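# step 3/5: fold
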Amino acid sequence: MINYSYVNNKVKLRLESLEHKDLEQRNTLGYESVENGVILPWKETGDNLATGGVLQPDGQFVISSANEDTHLYKGAETEECAVERNETVIYIGNMIPVWGHSITDNLKKIWFLKTGEGMSLLKKGVRLVYIIQFGRKIPHYMKDLLAMADVPISLVEEINVPTRFKRIIIPDNAIAINDGLRYYHRAYMETIEMIVQKVDSKYSVKEGIGKIYFTRTKLTSNRDKGEVDLEHVFSELGYSIISPEQHDLVEQIGMLRNCEVFATTEGSISHSAIFCRPNTNVIILRKADWVNKYQIMINQAANLDVTYIDAHHSVRNNKSQPWAGPFYLCVTSYLEKFVGHKIPRKPLWLRKDWLWYYFGKYKVAHMLNSVIHRIFLN
């Protein structure tokens, strides 16, 4: 069930149009086997595309080796193979070192390891290889997630130079993209279930986690401004304010598994709701006027009861990539409607953080210098 009572009408119509779409894939998943194929690592192209993947011997790109359908490798024909390895490997993906992708896209090929052929290959010591974007190392939480999904970490290896293998096995994706929407396969949810089973067996339920609010205010990101005011509102409503990065994965997921209500801002952090039990009440505070398609998929896949609330005045977020921010979070009339009463707050034009957000800190500094110059030097 989705509640749209606290969003603007334009967004409400958009969300309603997506709510009843069946986002479950029911095809039979398989895999592609590439003989003498080449795995290409991520490479900066300058056009903001997430590059890298698997090439056939003739240089043809294997589409299922990309992370998203528009993120294809460019200039593959100019690459020279640096390493030759006479072995079979299982390609588990083009990893994105971001939390939201770690619990969605980065897990979409793991289903294969539980098939008869997958388990047989693992018994033979076949290595699991991946590439990773932005030139980073795999985050520690990603390794922990893979281990919780029964992936043998000792067999996992990053490919960071163009490498030719005797055989590359590329499992189909258990999360697919079609017309901009994300579709999940039951096999993806089975991977999630493996993770939560581990958590359920280890997590000791603590008192006082009935209502939780996951915050991003302790992160170093500069994309979000103003969330501290939302924290205050939900603290007054009796929510426990939690910085998830300060807890290990078992604790993070355990709290989600055992809470009655989970509130947070929209984006990677709200994708954590995939771990909630069915029919958990989830409150998603929208950070901009766009619809996060991953969240739509997660709401349906996890069978959640979701309430969306417009809690922003993000007039400067990137229009071509609205997920990139910057965002300005604040108390709105929609949030007041949800709470049921007026919430004291300053007008935006009297808020230093809003001026910093709207004009940019350098513009603000320049403006203040100009005012001082006019007052004292003219």
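# step 4/5: annotate
The mean pLDDT is 88.
# step 5/5: archive (pending)
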